[in-house]
Amino acid sequence: MKPESNFEFSNSGLIIALVVSLIAAYISQIFLSSFIVLFEIMPEDYTLKWVVNDIIVYAPALFVTPLIMRRYSLPRESFPPSRFKWAAIVPLFTAMYSLSTVALLVSHFIADLFTRLYGTEGLKDIFESVMPENQLQWLVILFFVGIVAPFAEEIIFRHILLRPLRRLGDRPAIIITALLFGAFHQNLTQFLYAAVAGVILGIVAVRANSVKPAIVLHILNNTFDIGKLYLFESVEKGKIPIDGNVISAAIFLFFIAGIIITIVLIMRNRK
Questions:
Q1: Span 39-62, mean pLDDT?
Q2: Residue 257 to residues 99, 146, 227, Cα–Cα distance (Å)
Q3: I need a labelling partner for 149 at 20 to 30 A (CA). Which of 62, 74, 183, 226 fits?
């Protein structure tokens, strides 16, 4: 258990440490990215590109943030006992997918509105420049986006940051880390999507008093998105003898199921 002196720091000091740690991580990201571009050392190999990308994105936050936030962390014993059941992962995944999809649609609506009013560009496909071209590359993107990214992001946001922020209250901690999680993606395409997902992931981490269920839920969400991309591309190229409309209909039904589950979960929590 950590010494009781950890509790002497003010909430304002905690917020300052949080902001400073993330700013330091972002500055490190910018420096690393600029270094790569300036010296033109980005590898051509698809796998190595993802390795470099993940080092640039996650290494600074995983290294810098704990150094600054460590002194503010709370002992495990100070949290309430777990109220999470692993069987809830599937309905929570369905609900998170549906709510995140709604958030993504809102993002596109806002972008389209600004395009019409001010002539700005629409939202770009963030995967357009790194779309896989063969089966091996699909496995690579599945590994880095479906497994590495969820693991690193949950450690940063639902472990390193969420735990000390819980001294402000669980609800503020969940909302703050969700907004920071959205901002961490550094693009409008993913901000609302990630922020909404971050709320659910934060609730899961708090209920479970552990980051493990949040990691599993995040992995399910990302692998599902990659699976959709793979299915639609395979149908388009004639690799799978299925009508694309059938897949779209199945995904739509999954979306509706998620909305219904969300309503049920909200009603249960109100009781």
A1: 89
A2: 11, 23, 19
A3: 74
